[in-house]
Design a protein that fits this description.
Length: 202
């Protein structure tokens, strides 16, 4: 079974929601103020969506990524002003993906600068999450966080399988004020209904 997620997360402040509504990404935007009560299969998995809720821009990333149907290619998001990127992040992300034979999944510099510019415009942390799984195994999972500089978090799938080591999603969501007690994230469950949370109602 294949699964993929490529999304941008930030706190759903009034400023952020107004920005999303006026942006070319409005059709991909969702606002989750609280996680529905029926999202929990186990009590120990329970978590919230942060004090402001979450603004999620779904299906933004590599145009050929799994789960990107109907999404927006990261090649289309270019910042108005160039900003310096963290060279350690660049090297670390390339090495992480190259080790998995997935160098082509490395986000372009323009997209990273765009994320940086959005964080500066909103005055709050912005997180990009990318994950690909095949037959239940993680192919790649990384997070880029923008706010005070640029941060990279990656998941070591062998360590994660044993419940130890780094976990990109847990660390990344903590930067946007969502604290996961386990690796379970309700918004990534197959049964999560996104329609009621769409910013643009159909």
């Amino acid at each position: 079974m294949s699964w993929g997620a490529h999304s941008i997360f930030t706190a759903a402040t009034m400023h952020a929601v107004d920005w999303a509504a006026a942006s070319p990404l409005a059709h991909l935007a969702h606002v989750v103020r609280q996680v529905p009560d029926d999202a929990w299969y186990r009590r120990e998995w329970m978590h919230d969506a942060g004090p402001d809720g979450l603004l999620v821009l779904r299906r933004v990333g590599h145009p050929g990524g799994y789960g990107m149907k109907g999404g927006l290619s990261w090649n289309e998001l270019i910042p108005e002003q160039a900003a310096a990127l963290d060279l350690d992040v660049s090297a670390g992300l390339l090495a992480y993906l190259a080790e998995r034979g997935m160098e082509d999944q490395c986000p372009p510099d323009g997209f990273r600068r765009w994320l940086q510019s959005v964080a500066a415009q909103l005055g709050q942390a912005v997180m990009f999450y990318s994950c690909s799984m095949w037959a239940g195994e993680i192919e790649h999972e990384y997070v880029l966080v923008y706010g005070e500089g640029e941060q990279l978090h990656t998941t070591d799938e062998d360590a994660a399988a044993n419940g130890i080591g780094d976990d990109a999603l847990i660390k990344g969501l903590a930067e946007v004020s969502v604290n996961l007690p386990t690796r379970y994230f309700a918004l990534h469950a197959s049964g999560f209904d996104w329609a009621p949370h769409a910013l643009l109602k159909r």
